[in-house]
């Protein structure tokens, strides 16, 4: 989760006097020996920046020192448009790992999956690169090509994938009707306008009548802006705490609550999550779960419960620093734990054999239609629900909840 911020106020204590003199002397000695004896000549500026990178990279997988190009690249991504392949990555056990591909991007169309390990980028082994260096390598001019070597769980040999970079834009919300009365709302990432887009989508789906159920799909959602997550949760909650954050500095102690204006306060709700649901997606799922507003379905989420601030430095470079942890309304920290679904459903495909299907009156050509016969789903939607087992089960659960409500 990223938030652009000014540097927090520095403590007024005599911190300089408390610095460990012996360690500073050791640092200076190491610096001098590298300058004098390393096989290649290295300038002072490079050594100092490498030291700052190491200082931050050892804190956690999400903190980093950003040079001018990296800082500009990060600003472009938070503003919603950049040249790349559309992928969220992180470090797991020191390996560059896919958190999630973003919908309708070169990465998602090429079939990249959460938990894929990226071994090489254009022949460069990623084990030698920092997280930010890897991200910078994967971005570039739209139309240029990039070659990735991927190791997938359960496969012994690496896969070579060539992708063409595109402009990655920020269309984060889409919606459609699964069948009459039952809507589908997909949030692929959390951007500044995601809350507004969710409210508009709900209003569009209600034009043909009240919703009997809604599927909120947060699978493979890598997160994004904290305030956007609060706004999306607020579309379904009329009151109560959504999330709170805790850090060392006063400006990291924040609490966010739902407002009374709610787009869908009573619509039965199923929320889909998986291992690619991270950060802000986990805020929404955790809030709806703790407030018993919806049923969480799918598999365990990623478990990124930390907040990063992006701090500009005076030289045009920047710092991405983890400054707080977030907590669900019931006080759960999701960091390295994730959200456990209420109903566990793994991804799969529903196979219906011909022998298991019996002929019915409605299958006969020219059969008389009942006056109350419901409008059939399109062939495309039927196939989609068969391909996406989790989505099909979410729709079935919404129908079951409506049956129980009527009794």
UniProtKB/TrEMBL annotation:
Keyword hit for DNA repair: no
SUPFAM superfamilies: ClpP/crotonase, PDZ domain-like
Keywords assigned by UniProt, alphabetized: Hydrolase, Protease, Serine protease
UniProt-listed Pfam families: CtpB_N-like, PDZ_2, Peptidase_S41
Protein origin, superkingdom: Bacteria
Residue ranges occupied by any PDZ domain in the UniProt entry: 71-139
Basic and acidic residues composition-biased segments: 357-374
Region (Disordered) location: 357-380
Family of the protein in this entry: Belongs to the peptidase S41A family.
PANTHER family tied to this protein: CARBOXY-TERMINAL PROCESSING PROTEASE CTPA, TAIL-SPECIFIC PROTEASE
Name of this chain's protein: S41 family peptidase
Species of the source: Billgrantia ethanolica
């Amino acid at each position: 989760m990223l938030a652009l911020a000014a540097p927090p106020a520095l403590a007024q204590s005599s911190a300089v006097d408390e610095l460990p003199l012996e360690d500073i002397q050791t640092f200076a000695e190491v610096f001098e020996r590298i300058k004098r004896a390393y096989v290649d000549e290295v300038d002072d500026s490079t050594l100092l920046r490498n030291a700052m990178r190491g200082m931050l990279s050892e804190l956690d997988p999400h903190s980093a020192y950003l040079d001018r190009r990296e800082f500009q690249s990060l600003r472009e991504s938070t503003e919603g448009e950049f040249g790349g392949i559309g992928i969220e990555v992180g470090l797991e056990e020191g390996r560059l790992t896919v958190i999630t591909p973003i919908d309708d991007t070169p990465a998602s169309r090429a079939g990249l999956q959460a938990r894929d390990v990226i071994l090489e980028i254009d022949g460069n082994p990623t084990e030698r690169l920092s997280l930010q260096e890897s991200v910078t390598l994967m971005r570039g001019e739209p139309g240029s090509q990039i070659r990735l070597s991927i190791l997938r769980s359960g496969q012994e040999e690496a896969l070579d994938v060539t992708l063409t970079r595109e402009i990655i834009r920020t269309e984060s919300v889409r919606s459609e009707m699964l069948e009459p009365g039952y809507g589908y709302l997909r949030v692929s990432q959390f951007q500044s306008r995601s809350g507004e887009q969710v409210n508009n989508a709900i209003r569009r789906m209600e034009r043909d009548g009240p919703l009997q159920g809604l599927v909120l799909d947060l699978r493979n959602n890598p997160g994004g802006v904290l305030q956007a997550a609060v706004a999306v949760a607020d579309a379904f909650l009329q009151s109560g705490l959504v999330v709170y954050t805790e850090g060392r500095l006063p400006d990291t102690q924040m609490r966010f609550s739902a407002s009374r204006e709610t787009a869908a306060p009573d619509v039965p709700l199923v929320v889909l999550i998986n291992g690619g649901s991270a950060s802000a997606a986990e805020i929404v799922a955790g809030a709806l779960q703790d407030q018993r507003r919806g049923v969480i379905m799918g598999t365990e989420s990623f478990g990124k419960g930390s907040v990063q601030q992006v701090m500009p430095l005076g030289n045009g470079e920047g710092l991405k620093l983890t400054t707080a942890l977030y907590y669900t309304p019931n006080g759960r920290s999701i960091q390295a734990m994730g959200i456990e679904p209420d109903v566990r459903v793994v991804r799969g495909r529903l196979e219906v054999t011909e022998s298991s299907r019996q002929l019915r009156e409605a299958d006969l050509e020219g059969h008389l239609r009942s006056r109350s016969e419901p409008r059939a789903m399109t062939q495309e939607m039927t196939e989609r629900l068969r391909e996406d087992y989790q989505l099909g089960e979410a729709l079935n659960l919404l129908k079951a909840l409506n049956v129980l409500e009527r009794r």
